[in-house]
Write a structure and sequence with these properties.
Strand content: under 5%
CATH superfamily of the largest domain: Mitochondrial carrier domain
Structural class: mainly alpha
CATH architecture of the largest domain: Alpha/alpha barrel
Distance between the termini: 62 Å
Number of domains: 2
Number of helices: 15
Radius of gyration: 27 Å
Number of strands: 0
CATH topology of the largest domain: Mitochondrial carrier fold
Largest sheet: none
Helix content: over 70%
Length: about 350
């Protein structure tokens, strides 16, 4: 005759079973959100989510399931670029208005007049017209730009383990050239939306039909490449040297208090972006004229970048090439300050926790 286990024995068996199950997931009891969920009896669905997060954390800690560093690097670049672009988009909107021939006639060089007109006709959300599409396009663009710059910098390190200044400039320029494949389609669609009729809200399909399909997405690619190559060749070397000097300057300014990596990167990125943005304005103006809304620029559809630049100089004067330069600098300061600083901070954290 089989004897049933006593209550004390049953409790011991249950405790042993629970302990055995816990041994299968050794990292779960040490995962704080999971311990909290057990203690306060969270709803089943939320507890399930926390268990999945705990499992993901334990899997990530295993070398067999480690995420490739290139994926982490790309994700960090995408996230940093998206936040940087969103923080500066209103200035980009104003800048585009001043660089079109229509905007030049209507606003002259006054960014305030352009901003007031946008606010009166479209309200505060008018400054973010096309921003969702811009952020979506920025993700691959900045991933390429930041990732390729790091890659080329590694390639140009000399035998002594140092990166010469020429290598820094070349790495930046090549990263700018690589990003054009993603940047130009984004710029074409963004400029069409920004410079089109504000009373209408065209869909992406309508914009693509307006630009002439896939080939139209690369209109002005020469001017775009000239702008991005020069900008990146100036931006990245300046940032690399500024982020070494800025912490020393800030520490001496604030009485020896060591500033955080984020604030040092923000200042260094802003200082690097300002001169690069100003010097690249002529190429940006030519690019915008080539890509602006078709109904206001039908007579220039067959021009290339050099012909457009010559036309602007002959009919409006060379100074017009710097239209929107102030707004472009003001836009680039927060955009690249945030982007480069976040990219540096997140990359450092990723290395510290062993996922990159």
């Amino acid at each position: 005759k089989k004897c049933r286990p006593t209550r004390t024995q049953s409790m011991r068996i249950s405790a042993a079973s629970i302990a055995a199950r816990r041994n299968l997931l050794p990292t779960m009891p040490t995962f704080p959100p999971l311990r909290m969920a057990v203690r306060i009896n969270l709803p089943q669905k939320l507890s399930t989510v926390l268990v999945i997060v705990a499992l993901a954390a334990s899997i990530q800690s295993s070398d067999a399931f480690a995420v490739p560093s290139a994926v982490v690097h790309t994700a960090i670049g995408a996230f940093s670029g998206a936040l940087g672009a969103l923080s500066a988009y209103p200035f980009d909107m104003i800048k585009s208005q001043l660089q079109t021939d229509y905007g030049r006639e209507k606003y002259g060089t006054s960014g305030i007049a352009a901003a007031a007109d946008i606010f009166q006709t479209s309200g505060p959300l008018g400054f973010y017209r096309g921003s969702i599409l811009n952020v979506a396009g920025i993700i691959p663009e900045k991933s390429i730009k930041l990732g390729m710059n790091d890659f080329f910098r590694m390639c140009f390190i000399d035998t002594s383990g140092c990166l010469p200044l020429a290598g820094e400039v070349l790495a930046g320029g090549l990263s700018g050239l690589c990003q054009v494949v993603a940047t130009n389609p984004l710029e074409v669609v963004k400029v069409r939306i920004q410079t089109g009729d504000r009373s209408t809200k065209p869909s992406i399909i309508e914009v693509l039909q307006d630009v002439g399909g896939v080939t139209g997405l690369y209109r002005g690619a020469g001017a775009c490449a000239a702008r991005d190559v020069l900008f990146s060749a100036l931006l990245f070397p300046t940032f690399a040297h500024a982020k070494v000097a800025v912490p020393i300057f800030l520490a001496s300014t604030f009485g020896g208090v060591e500033p955080s990596q984020f604030w040092c990167g923000l200042v260094a990125g802003s200082l690097a972006a300002a001169p690069a943005a100003f010097l690249c304005t002529p190429a940006d103006t030519v690019k915008t004229r080539l890509q602006q809304s078709r109904d206001s620029a039908s007579e220039v559809q067959d021009m290339n970048a050099l012909e457009m630049a010559r036309s602007i100089i002959e009919t409006e004067g060379a100074e017009v090439l710097f239209s929107g330069s102030f707004e472009r600098v003001v836009r680039s300061i927060p955009q690249f300050g945030v982007t480069l600083s976040l990219f540096d901070v997140l990359s450092t954290k990723a290395v510290e926790i062993g996922i990159m």
